[in-house]
Amino acid sequence: MYFRLVCTGILLLAVMGTFSSGFAQNPQKQVLSLEQAVVCEDIEDFRPVNPGLAFSIENGSIICFTRFAVISRETFIWHRWYRKGELVAEKQLVLKPPQWSTYSLIQLREFDKGPWRIDIVDANDQVLTTLRFSVIE
Question: I need a labelling partner for 35 at 20 to 30 A (CA). Which of 12, 26, 103, 122 fits?
Answer without folding.
Answer: 26
